[in-house]
Amino acid sequence: MSTPCPFCNKESFKERIVLETKQWYVIASLGQITSGYLLVFPKEHHSCFGAMSELSKKETSGQRAVVCHTLGCLEQEYWGELGAAHITLFEHGIVGQSVPHAHLHVLPVRLDLTPRVQKDFTQCEIVELENPEKLQLLWQKQQKPYLLWSNGNGKPMVCWNPPAPKQYFRTVVAEILGYPNRADWKTMDPALDKRMWQGTVERLKRQLGRTPYKNT
To answer: Which are the contacts of 177, defined by CB distance < 8 A and separation ≥ 6?
Structure first.
């Protein structure tokens, strides 16, 4: 019997919701490596963002809108903290996932993960994408696991078919930021983590309240 998907069950994360639209959730991540660590994911179950190639233009526009709104609120709330000059994004596309439901990791820190990915996966194809929607087009042709992240200029990058371990990007980010003990959300100090995600929810809900969003 398969394990139920926690992202398909609102009860499993309702206390961590920062924003809910008709089709999307934005929640504070468990395993808060740093304050403001969010996950963005669709209500409908998909294995990864690449596999969402069947979305209509309206749904794709809604996806872009909720992600952009989340990034804007994070930058407004955390600007000047944690060295934040722009947002770091990443996704484990059917490799390195702990939860097999498409979800984008969003952190208000300035990181370029490209050199680390290039070092760890020298035999894999790594390309810069023109825009995030390009991922779906490539996925239709590749149909392979991937890593997705933003480079130092905020442009999306993808690495195809890497042998990445579970929570690969979490581990890399935790090491870079100096919090290796927060890499695995399953083993992070639960009391510290709860204080941190509660703080993230409080701050971002307040920021979102000052920045209205059209519910799509």
So the answer is: 33, 34, 109, 111
Residue 174 has pLDDT above 90, yes or no: yes
| H/E stretch holding 137 | helix 134-142
Tell the CATH superfamily of the 6-210 domain. HIT-like (3.30.428.10)
The pLDDT tens digits of the residues spanning 86-126 come to 789 999 999 999 999 999 999 998 889 999 999 999 999 99
CB-based burial label for 145 (10 Å; 0-12, 13-18, 19+):
buried
The upper half-sphere exposure of residue 16, i.e. CA atoms within 13 Å in the direction of its Cβ, equals: 25
Question: Could you give the C-alpha distances from 110 to 41, 87, 106, 135, 182, in angstroms and in order?
Answer: 22, 6, 11, 22, 18
Tokens describing residue 77? 């709330």
Question: Each residue of 49-85: pLDDT tens digit?
Answer: 998 876 555 555 667 788 888 888 888 888 766 554 5
Under 8 Å between Cβ of 45 and 8: yes
